[in-house]
Design a protein that fits this description.
Order of helices and strands: EEHEHHEH
Structural class: mainly alpha
Number of strands: 4
Shape: elongated
Strand content: 5-15%
Distance between the termini: 31 Å
Helix content: 40-55%
Number of helices: 4
C-alpha cells in the first residue's frame, strides 16, 4: 500500500486515515450523513447560502453552465422573448432543487442555532 505519515493505506481500508469520510459500514454514518442538506440556510436574512456538499456544487455549476448556454443559443438582443422565458424556467428548476435538498428556509439574523436540525445541516457531530 501507500505510506502516508505513519499509516499504511490499503486500497480496501481508507477509514484508518479518513475515518469521517469512509465509515466501515453505512450504519456508522449516523443521521448527520443520511439527512445532510445540500444548501444550508443563510446566517442573515431568508433563503439559502452557498452549497456545502459536492451535490450542491454540481447543481450550482450545472445552473451556471446552462445559463451560459442560454446566453449563447438565445442571445437577449436577438430573442427578447425566448431568453427571459428560458432564464426564468431554469431558475425555477434551480429553486425547486434547492427547496427539495436544502435546509428549510427561515428568517435569521445572525443567531447561532443550537437545535439538532442546525447541527445536522452543518455536518457537526
Amino acid at each position: 500500500g501507500l505510506h502516508i505519515a505513519q499509516f499504511t493505506l490499503n486500497s480496501s481500508d481508507h477509514s484508518a486515515v479518513f475515518p469521517h469520510r469512509f465509515p466501515k459500514n453505512i450504519s456508522e454514518r449516523g443521521p448527520a450523513m443520511k439527512n445532510r442538506y445540500w444548501f444550508p440556510v443563510k446566517r442573515y436574512g431568508w433563503g439559502w447560502g452557498p452549497p456545502t456538499t459536492w451535490e450542491g456544487w454540481c447543481v450550482l455549476a450545472s445552473y451556471v453552465f446552462i445559463l451560459l448556454g442560454i446566453c449563447f443559443w438565445l442571445p437577449p438582443h436577438k430573442k427578447p422573448v425566448s431568453y427571459p422565458i428560458a432564464v426564468t424556467c431554469i431558475t425555477l428548476v434551480l429553486l425547486l432543487v434547492v427547496w427539495k435538498t436544502g435546509e428549510p428556509p427561515r428568517w435569521r439574523w445572525g443567531e447561532i442555532d443550537t437545535t439538532e436540525d442546525a447541527a445536522t445541516s452543518q455536518n457537526i457531530e
